[in-house]
């Protein structure tokens, strides 16, 4: 357990000693920033699961890295395996925060890019954010059309950015844009057959996402970790996230023999666990 108090910097930023290293975080971000302040970690149950997926040979790819709450732990695990990691975060302010956290932890096996990832090269847009006010800055969705108050960002394909590199893991958390990002990685997926760990919390988009992954000859399982970890780094018992969980898909090539104890295989693309909540 770590007892050191977060250090306030220029508001609303804090420097925090977390479970996985020093982190710069925005206290106005209700999910990632506040979790780091309250618990010294963010979605640690998910993070521990993801670290088990890092291994083998090839690049580790994270699309939607945000400020690096998962990236730091993933990168340290990848470094132990002599792997390089490639991360993408399109929000300019959040990308700066991500790079600060990589630097704070002397992470040298990560290449970070300020791009969105989609099915084709071009531009995407996201609603302008007020990072000085409370919000959910990890819940920002990309959109194809410009609006009255949107920010334009470059969009690339993973196939283009990764070239012919071998890839062992692709993690995607892009707020409903997961299918498009995967479509832009189709050659990489066909060539490398990486493990896929993909957020899937949009019920209306879930069937198409699952069916596309199936079409690549993958099997798929649900992984639904709670945001609150009772054994959190700061040993706090109050659960400010109640029963909120992440809804993710673990996808593995059908030809690979695997152990997935405790996970529920997806056999019906029309079913989503959120429908029960």
TrEMBL record:
Signal sequence interval, chain numbering: none
Keyword Ribonucleoprotein among record annotations: no
Highest taxon, organism lineage: Bacteria
Pfam family membership, one: Methyltransf_21
Molecular function via GO: methyltransferase activity
InterPro entries in UniProt: FkbM_mtfrase, SAM-dependent_MTase, SAM-dependent_MTases_sf
UniProt cross-references to PANTHER family, sorted A to Z: METHYLTRANSFERASE, FKBM FAMILY PROTEIN (PTHR34203), SLL1173 PROTEIN (PTHR34203:SF15)
Keywords, ordered alphabetically: Methyltransferase, Transferase
Protein name: FkbM family methyltransferase
One GO BP: methylation
């Amino acid at each position: 357990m770590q007892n050191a108090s977060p250090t306030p910097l220029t508001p609303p930023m804090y420097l925090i000693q977390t479970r996985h290293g020093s982190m710069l975080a925005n206290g106005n971000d209700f999910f990632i920033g506040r979790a780091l302040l309250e618990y010294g970690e963010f979605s640690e149950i998910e993070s521990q699961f993801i670290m088990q997926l890092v291994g083998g040979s090839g690049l580790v790819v994270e699309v939607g890295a945000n400020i690096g709450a998962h990236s730091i732990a993933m990168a340290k695990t990848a470094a132990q395996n002599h792997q390089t990691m490639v991360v993408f975060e399109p929000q300019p302010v959040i990308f700066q925060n991500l790079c600060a956290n990589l630097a704070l932890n002397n992470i040298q096996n990560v290449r970070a890019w300020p791009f969105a990832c989609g099915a084709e090269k071009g531009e995407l847009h996201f609603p302008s954010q007020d990072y000085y006010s409370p919000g959910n800055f990890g819940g920002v969705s990309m959109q194809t059309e410009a609006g009255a108050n949107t920010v334009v960002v470059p969009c690339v394909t993973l196939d283009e950015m990764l070239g012919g590199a071998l890839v062992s893991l692709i993690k995607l958390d892009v707020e409903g844009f997961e299918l498009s990002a995967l479509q832009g990685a189709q050659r990489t997926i066909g060539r490398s057959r990486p493990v896929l760990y993909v957020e899937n919390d949009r019920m209306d988009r879930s069937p198409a996402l699952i069916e596309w992954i199936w079409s690549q000859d993958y099997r798929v399982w649900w992984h639904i970790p709670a945001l609150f970890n009772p054994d959190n780094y700061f040993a706090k018992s109050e659960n400010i996230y109640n029963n909120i969980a992440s809804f993710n898909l673990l996808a593995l090539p059908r030809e690979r023999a695997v152990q997935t104890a405790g996970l529920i295989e997806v056999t019906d693309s029309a079913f989503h666990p959120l429908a029960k909540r």
